[in-house]
Amino acid sequence: MVKRTGPQNNDIVDAISELKKAFLDSKVKLWKRLYKEISRSTRNRRVVNIIRLDKHTKDNDVVVVPGKLLGVGTMTKKITVAPLLISEKAEQKLKDAGCKVISFKDLIKNNPKGTNVKIIG
Q1: Residues 19-48: pLDDT tens digits?
Q2: How far apart, in whole angstroms, are the C-alpha atoms of residue 114 and residue 10?
Q3: Domain range for residue 110?
Q4: pLDDT tens, 72-105?
Q5: CA 86, chain centre distance (Å)
Q6: Residue 3 — φ and ψ, nearest 5°?
Q7: Which residues lie closer than 8 Å to 37 by C-beta, 6 or more apart?
Q8: What is the CATH number of the domain that holds 49?
């Protein structure tokens, strides 16, 4: 049996530790759910296309993608997105549409209570 080692990507390890620390400090269940989601193996993480974001959001929404965000589709709304991983094409399309792409650390800093945040994936 192979020993489980966990994520090897430093950005993912940092995101997990930030979310875990935020949960322990504030007891906001959103942060606990997110750090458990991104602690999953790579095969079990979510993959979301921009078209899905456009379909399930409104202007000025704050969205978390606990997986990889891909660039299929077009974005017509201005939202704030915090993806775990993002493709270059998706990042460019979001910036062209006027959306903000932030990290989990920035999300926790700007919204410590986790209010009005949607998880899509």
Answers
A1: 999 999 999 999 999 999 999 888 888 999
A2: 24
A3: 10-119
A4: 999 999 999 999 999 999 999 999 999 999 999 9
A5: 9
A6: -75, 135
A7: 45, 46, 66, 67, 119
A8: 3.100.10.10
